[in-house]
Each structure stands twice: as structure tokens, then as C-alpha cells.
Design a protein that fits this description.
This protein has one helix and 19 strands.
Length: about 200
């Protein structure tokens, strides 16, 4: 009986030590992949990541944004690159924020932003009707995505895109502009009213 109790005590002690060791893994960011453009995939590798973490992006002389990761393991997080106002290549510092406001070291990533959507008019749209997307850097856009389907615009300028909403677009779909190089805009959510087509 004494041997059994001793064995159980040793096993419990080892479990506590192992748990303490894993809980004390430092939050550290080791590397970040450079995305091709805003909205592109980004992988962060490091140690001490947990499900409750957030990713903080701070643009040099620009905005700050915080996002939840798409996937999480103890050593890898995935997310999408942030959007910045204005076209060009922007430098962002990125860090991981753990629960209780514990923050990792920062690394720098360069993100290309060229397409910026601001609004859709009319604000409430119908399937099979034209809408106008307003924004900047739009002159090269050749596709507009409505959720998982796309349409070719009928007219494009640097600040406006005219495109027909197809009959298959659902209310609440994300609208994204794309140019021939694969550069994507930030998404806007479209409101679809019944009665179109």
C-alpha cells in the first residue's frame, strides 16, 4: 500500500512539474512571413501561443489594428495581412498579445496596399442590378468578388467601379475588388434586398 501511494505521489508530482513547465513557456515571436499584399496569408512562428491570443498590427505613422488568428498551435499562428489607407508598401510591426495583456516582442513586416474600398451605392442592393463601389487605387480592377463568386465590372475608374450584382449573391456577402496581379482590396459587406432579378 505504501508503495502504491508513493507511486501515485511521484506521478502526481511529475504531472504538476510538466504542467508548470508548459505554462511557463515564454511568449516569443521568432518569425513572420511577408505577405504579398493586404489580405494575404501571414504565418507567425514562435513559442507560448494559446487559443486566447490576439495579433496586434501597428503601422509606422499610421493605424493600429488587432485581429484574432485564423488558426492557433503552441508554435504557429495564421492570420491575414492588414489594410492600410492609401496605395503603396507600408511597414507594420506585429506582436502577439496573450490573455492578461502579456505582449510578445515585435517584428516588422512590409505589406503592399493598392486597392481601397470605402462604400457601396446604393447601400441596399438588388440581385441583377448595378452597384457602384467607391474607393481609391481602383483603376486596374478587373474582377469583383461577391462571396465565392465573381463578376467583371462594366466600368472602372481610379475611384469607382460599376458592377452588376449577380442573382446568386446572398445578403451579407463580402465584396472584394481584385486586379490582374492578384492584389485584393479590403472587404465590404453588401446588403441584398428581396425582389431582384
Amino acid at each position: 500500500m505504501k508503495r502504491l501511494l508513493a507511486g501515485l505521489f511521484i506521478a502526481a508530482s511529475l504531472a504538476l512539474v510538466t504542467t508548470a513547465a508548459s505554462a511557463s513557456t515564454p511568449l516569443r515571436l521568432k518569425s513572420v512571413t511577408n505577405p504579398e499584399h493586404s489580405g494575404g496569408a501571414v504565418t507567425l512562428t514562435g513559442t507560448g501561443f494559446t487559443v486566447g491570443d490576439s495579433i496586434k498590427w501597428v503601422m509606422t505613422a499610421g493605424p493600429t489594428t488587432v485581429a484574432k488568428p485564423l488558426t492557433v498551435t503552441p508554435t504557429k499562428l495564421t492570420t491575414k495581412a492588414p489594410f492600410a489607407p492609401g496605395a503603396g508598401t507600408h511597414a507594420w510591426s506585429v506582436a502577439v498579445i496573450a490573455p492578461k495583456s502579456i505582449i510578445s516582442n515585435r517584428l516588422t513586416v512590409k505589406v503592399i496596399t493598392g486597392l481601397q474600398l470605402v462604400s457601396i451605392s446604393p447601400a441596399d442592393a438588388y440581385n441583377c442590378h448595378m452597384v457602384t463601389l467607391h474607393g481609391s487605387g481602383l483603376a486596374g480592377v478587373n474582377l469583383v468578388w461577391f462571396g465565392s463568386s465573381y463578376q467583371k465590372p462594366s466600368a472602372v475608374t481610379s475611384t469607382q467601379i460599376q458592377v452588376e450584382v449577380s442573382e446568386f449573391v446572398e445578403n451579407g456577402s463580402e465584396v472584394v475588388a481584385e486586379d490582374p496581379s492578384g492584389l485584393h482590396s479590403n472587404p465590404l459587406v453588401i446588403t441584398i434586398l428581396p425582389g431582384g432579378c
